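Weekly modeling sync, notes
Attendees: S.R. (lead), two postdocs, one rotation student

Agenda item 3: backlog of single-chain predictions. S.R. asked that every request posted to the team notebook include the full sequence so nobody has to chase files. The rotation student volunteered to paste the first one in as an example of the format we agreed on. Action items at the bottom.

Example entry:
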Amino acid sequence: MVTWKLWRSLLLCLVLSAPGVALAQANPREPLAFTEADPLWPDRPRELNRRERRQLQTALGQLDQQARELLRQGNTEAAFRVWYRVLRLSQALERSQEIQALGRIGEIAWQENQTGPVNAIGDRLQAIQRTPNLDTETLELLGNAYQKLRSPALALPVYQELLARSRPDPNRTEANLQIIAQLHMAWFDYAAAAPVYQELLELVTRLNDVARQITYTEELAYIYDRANQPVQAIATRQRLLDYYQNKPELRVKLPAVHIAIGTSHELLRKPQEASNSYQTAYNLAIGDRQYAYAQEALQKLARLYQAYNQPNVAIQVYQTLIRIHQLAYDTYNSMDTYDQMGQIHLQQRNYPAALQMFEQGLVLARNLRYQEAYFQAQVERVRALIPAAR
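Predicted structure, as returned to the notebook:
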């Protein structure tokens, strides 16, 4: 004897697998709008009771698995027809459940580069957003769904509203500011992200949270670099220097900060300030045996002197750099530095010194089995120039 429970299960399977059911519900222009009743919700718009909702949730879970299997098989169009049906039927559930379904399926649509579903889901989310007097939980769900759709422009107004509501609570305010900043960063809109991080920094400064002050100051320095704002970058890194100097475990970061400050000074065409920063970085790095930073600082310093037509000083810096390369067992960069010195001597028509540098580079090139032909050509070129110069 067939029980009612078994009969209901069989009927549900027939409804889920019935050919053309999903197509019969779909409107190509508005695929999430109902054009006729669905067998799983035949007397729409009647509100379902709790038992009916549970039954619908079970059916929607099965439809979701069906769509995933179609996608796995490569039948993307059929998969999204099923998912459209899932989303239409989700409107019979709690609003929060519908929004979560929109976000989940929207993320799949974005990952599969399905513009039509992404747009349709975005339209439905915006329609929900236009509902008057939405509570904070619903706004949070909408913001999360927009993020899954990779739609910062749609998410930003939601989080701005959430930010306005969260002002009395510092923790929630910080969380919303972080999301807003990340949304700007996702669009590479550094100019818009900077004031948000500045507000975050002011917030945690009021809370006297030094660890988070350092984090947001570092973020601001990165943003000012990307936004090509060297003045602000220097000021921000000066603040970082104060933090790092007061924390012994962070002092290892000081050389990198001084190098970055020097680079910003170069952008501002302030060679003396840049030189001072690079020399400070070198002294700190060599004192702590941070040879990588010591090499970087000297490399930038030497090129700075070259750029401002001080080749002899650049040569002296390169000679120091060679010794640091040796301490770091850095044969490749030693070879490159010999090449740099050789080129400077060549420009000065100091051919014997240039020959010596290129010969040193050739020895290292042979050891590395790299750029041997280049250095051999430089050696032969300079040798040919020496008799003509006499």
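Discussion: group reviewed the output briefly. Confidence is low (pLDDT under 50) at residues 1-25.
Action items: rotation student to repeat for the remaining queue; S.R. to check formatting next week.
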